[in-house]
Amino acid sequence: MEETDREAVATAVQRVAGMLQRPDQLDKVEQYRRREARKKASVEARLKAAIQSQLDGVRTGLSQLHNALNDVKDIQQSLIDVNKDWRQSINTIENLKDVKDAVVQHSQLAAAVENLKNIFSVPEIVRETQDLIERGELLQAHRKLMDLECSRDNLMYEQYRMDSKNTHDMNLIHTYFGDMQKLSEELAKQLWMVVQRSLVTVRRDPTLLVSVVRIIEREEKTDRRMLDRKKQTGFIPPGRPKKWKEKMFNILERTVSTRIEGTQADTRESDKMWLVRHLEIIRKYVLDDLLVAKTLLDQRFPPHYDIFNRLLNMYHQALSTRMQELAAEDLEANEIVSLLTWVLNTYKSTEMMGNSELSPEVDVNSLNPLISQNVVDQLLSKYMSTLTSNIIGWLRKALETDKKDWIKETEPEADQDGYYQTTLPAIVFQMFEQNLQVAAQINEELKTKVLLLCLQQMNSFLTRYKDEAQLYKEEHLKNRQYPQCYVQYMIAVINNCQTFKESIISLKRKYLKIEMEDTLSSSHTSMDATLDIIAKEGCSSLLDEVFMDLEPHLNELMTKKWLMGSNAVGTICVTVEDYFNDFAKIKKPYKKTMTIEAHRRVVVEYIRAIMLKRISFKNAEERKEGAERMIKEAEQFRFLFKKLAAGSGEDTEGLCDIIEAIAEVIKLTDPSLLYLEVSTLVSKYPDIRDDHIAALLTVRGDASRDMKQTIIETLDQGPSQPNPNYVPIFKEITVPTLTVPKLLK
Asked: How far is residue 239's CA from residue 283's CA, in Å, rounded to a whole number?
């Protein structure tokens, strides 16, 4: 108490100190005293009121406790009296057993009397119910059936209460109402027929469907009531619970499965497009059914049935089962693509589950896959394996077809620019395009895999193409009259190489992502190299054809006949130009390459004719005449190839200059200057060998053996400064050694 007083005093001192902090506040001391007095009086009044309220509550509580104690004593006394009376009446209750049995019997008889009318009218009600079922009045038929069931159930329940072990009487009642069970089964059949055709019925006769749902709801309610009574009494009537709601959903599920399976109208034997048709029919049926279920069926069922989502799950499960069955079949490559495209793309597209009319009830993102990823991978693996075999077969067949064209007696077709071509590139890349377009329908990854496969097989195919072109050339060499259009078809083969190159680039640009190009660079390089080899060998074979025709005229060069005025070079030029009229149908850059090679080979053959030493000039006059003829013919060659190379940018001067340089050596009249002229020749063309110089001096006819050896030895000791732009030509020319003395240093 003293501690409390001290705290109160300290608090008061603190408050007073707070009020009197400034001198001017001393004038308000009286005002502060009155305000504090009022507060004190107010607090004391509230405190007195609270204490008084507490005292009143305690007084009331004590009064109630006193009354409760008196009540408990009265109840205790009453229980003692009841216990005393009960002990005295035990014997009396045992004497009333007969009365109890009479009451039970009376209750049963009362139930029998109550149902007596129904019992006697059972056969009539059965007939009426049967008629109602046959007329399709299902609600009325079910009402009468429920009345019959109620009568039977009440009788059986009373019998059960009286004697649950008396099976004879129970069987008697069950037998009497036996036709009722048949009616129930007949009515159920009618219900299930309506349920099976619910999507049609809801459009034609929605009232009938509503009646069926009401009947099922009644039965569900009765099932619940009977199950509750079973928990209390242990009795349940025969045939309960019927579970018609569960059966209805089972019927719907079987109907959906049958509808999905029944859409296959064709087989592979009768129609190659059987699977496409099958999947399209499924798509249309499922979409139509779900739209009907959402707009019409959902309104005819109670909300707790959730009929649309239940049907959606049924269709999804049935589709999943059907797709797995199809995936397990031995499908062809195009069928695998059709199936995967449908499963992975079409199913969730706006053409089906993603249809705007099905949203928001159908969320395509929440739908599980129709087939597992493992099955998808297996199908893709099988597709790639089958496609590989198919592509190999298609390419082989395409090449065989193209080879048959090579031996035709008619020229190959020309493109819009007039270049010869065959249909091979178009067939090959059309096939590639079709497969890539199909793969693109599934996913980007498969498209890339198919592109890689196509290019890989293309690489192998080009090797076979090269071999076949070589065999074509070899067969022609056995009989140059056959095939008749050999040159034209070889030109087409060369042009095909350029078409293949362009098509490969186009294919990659169209179907390959930029970041994937590096993975194919080596393969692309390999294909380009193979195509260049094919084209180069084709050009070479065509030039071989030209030079086989030129051989007799080349053999006339640098002979007495040639010196006397042979027109061999004129014939050579005409022949080459005639061939190049056909070669004009070769595409760039191969045409340019071929012109350059023809120019080079003509010059090589001309120089080879010189080195063969078919002629040895006897005097200066012959040397002059021969040299001038050589210069003239070099000019003819220059004019010819300048004409053939028009627009190609080819340098036609350098090769013919070699002939003119050799002519200058032959034309020289002063033998003392021969070494200087020969050294000039060697400095221009450093690949010229000793035997070439010896042969050239032999053709001149005025150089002694010692002079030849001296010139050669002197040239060997001189420095060699080859022109870096010079392309060696003499290394291809072999000088015969049988008729020429060896000149060894």
From this structure: 41
